[in-house]
Amino acid sequence: MTRYRFILCSLIIVPLALGFGLPAGRVSTENPFPMSSGTYWIYRGTVRWTHEGSDQISDAPITWRTEIRRVIQHGDVHGIVVGGFPFDSAWSDEQPKISDSLLLESKGKFYLIGDERFEQAVHRLEQSSDSLDGILKDNDLVLEWPLRKGQKYCDADGMARPDGHYCWVVTSSRKASLSGVAGVESAERDEFVLEYWTNPDNIRFTFVPEVGITKYEYHHHGTVADTELQLVEFHQSVDNHK
């Protein structure tokens, strides 16, 4: 089960793919995620899991690839089909499985759709006559731009909770250099840390505008299921068509 799937089950589981064409150090106020077909990210990290039907716990290093497979424009809604969104690495073992998700952007809000809703959402986006009513749901939100420390966003039920659970919260922001990431110019950039806590689990990811998700963590609080990923390569496509 992917991380994002798990948030959806908890709410009824996590993102980041993501304005191209700006020089390093400049932040697009319109679209902070690269959104060009062919762009990809390489992560390295570790997974820990409990073997099915036993108490045995194992861990293994993994390499994870995230790629923008397709760009779809529908009015003022920008869509990208993403293979291997980092959230999918949750609940992995030494042979992680890659799936496709749809990331939608409208008016600075980013919505991640996967699982059984993915194909229908892509089909609707392809139909120019579709009004897209109901496709942008608050419980699919993964990013709301611009970001600021202390920011909170989610559906109405989550916003009403006093404990901050079942909502994305921007827990910190700072200037940082991505000097260890191949394909990224070493320059000081804005970096934001976002967290999502539920009773059974939590997600934490680091987001850098124009680069995307640079770190991702998933931790389950019961049966062991932990994932930690660190961006090591970023390859921006020369295709700037949106």
Overview of this structure, please?
The chain is mainly β and 242 residues long. 9% of the residues lie in helices and 42% in strands. The protein has a single domain (3-235), classed as Beta Barrel (YmcC-like fold). The protein has helices at residues 3-11, 118-126, 156-159, and strands at 40-50, 57-74, 77-83, 100-106, 109-113, 141-144, 152-153, 168-177, 188-197, 201-208, 212-220, 225-235. Strands 6-5-4-3-2-1-12-11-10-9-8-7 form a 12-stranded antiparallel beta sheet, covered by helices on one side. A hairpin with a 2-residue loop joins strand 2 (57-74) and strand 3 (77-83). The radius of gyration is 17 Å and the shape is globular. Residues 1-29 have low confidence and may be disordered.
Brief digest:
The chain has 242 residues and is mainly beta. 9% of the residues lie in helices and 42% in strands. It has helices at 3-11, 118-126, 156-159; strands at 40-50, 57-74, 77-83, 100-106, 109-113, 141-144, 152-153, 168-177, 188-197, 201-208, 212-220, 225-235.
Task: Walk me through the topology.
Elements: H1 3-11, E1 40-50, E2 57-74, E3 77-83, E4 100-106, E5 109-113, H2 118-126, E6 141-144, E7 152-153, H3 156-159, E8 168-177, E9 188-197, E10 201-208, E11 212-220, E12 225-235
Antiparallel strand pairs: 1-2, 1-12, 2-3, 3-4, 4-5, 5-6, 7-8, 8-9, 9-10, 10-11, 11-12
Number of domains: 1
Q: The CATH topology, please?
A: YmcC-like fold
CATH class (first level) name: Mainly Beta
Proper CATH architecture:
Beta Barrel
User: Distance between termini?
Assistant: 31 Å
- Please state the average pLDDT score: 88
Order of helices and strands: HEEEEEHEEHEEEEE
